[in-house]
Amino acid sequence: MTSTASTPTAPDRNLALELVRVTEAAAIAGARWVGAGDKNRADGAAVDAMRTFMDTVRMNGTVVIGEGEKDEAPMLFNGESVGDGTGPDVDVAVDPIDGTRLTALGYNNALAVFAVAEKGSMYDPSAVFYMEKMVVGPEAADYVDLRLPVAQNITLVAKALNKPVSQVTVCVLERPRHEPLVQEIRDAGARVKFIMDGDVAGAIAAARGAGVDMLLGTGGTPEGIIAACAVKATGGMLQGRLAPIDDAERQKAIDAGHDLDRVLTTSDLVTTDNCYFAATGITDGDLLKGVRFQQDRLITESIVMRAQSGTVRIVEAEHRVEKWDRWLSE
């Protein structure tokens, strides 16, 4: 597929800051519920704000990674048309809150995320909801392979970064299924940094070397596709392998033509370089600061990434509180 900024149907560089406005809105709406113990209300508020602001973006988008194909998801469901309809034809992947439990409990690393790519370029996992993943930064991107033993990949990362294995830090979702993986990492001599939820943030941190050197483990396939848009901009590598949770899901994947032994690369998950990723912090984390409430204003911190140019921008913004009454009031 060829991608040029002059092609009318392809997203152009002017789209980047429009996407940040969308994630800022979702983050502000979700931040109202930080620590309130109700992840559903937090998610609902973020979805409402994201959908409202998304309709102002100059694009003709179709949600391919959304809130799910289920009746109780009234907005941002897979297949929904978004944008103002006047711009380029694009695939859209959203997660109004990556880390709803983190938001509800007031823990770190909750983000509002939004990715856009040329239409037809995002991978269709055929409802296989989990994927084995590995993410590294650009220095190690050409050396690691998900099919290698964990200890060997860690050694390769250490060599690429010119540091001892004992200083390699691996980000892992804290789940019972990862206990054997954690033991392998520790047996190799590396460090483990656990995250409770939100492996999009973990993937980007690994790709950028922001406190961790690699991410390993099984997490959501939709999150992997969203993260791939960001990883492309860093020059890092995301490798994944579909991980069906039961025989029925496995058979569905086989019937859809998936090779379950295949290692998918960043470019398999998003086939174009003309893609964008935006995220705004909801709670503080390694990647971004969360929404800060002050007397008359809100302060947000966002990241926006464009793969085609390899540009990564950090955007801090101030917002007047009274302009956000719809999403900050009960």
Automatic annotation (TrEMBL):
CDD domains: FBPase_glpX. The keyword Hydrolase applies. Pfam families: FBPase_glpX. Pathway: Carbohydrate biosynthesis; gluconeogenesis. It catalyses: beta-D-fructose 1,6-bisphosphate + H2O = beta-D-fructose 6-phosphate + phosphate. Keywords: Carbohydrate metabolism, Hydrolase, Manganese, Metal-binding. SUPFAM superfamilies: Carbohydrate phosphatase (SSF56655). InterPro entries: FBPase_class-2/SBPase. GO terms for molecular function: fructose 1,6-bisphosphate 1-phosphatase activity. Belongs to the FBPase class 2 family. NCBIfam families: glpX. This is Fructose-1,6-bisphosphatase. It comes from Brachybacterium tyrofermentans.
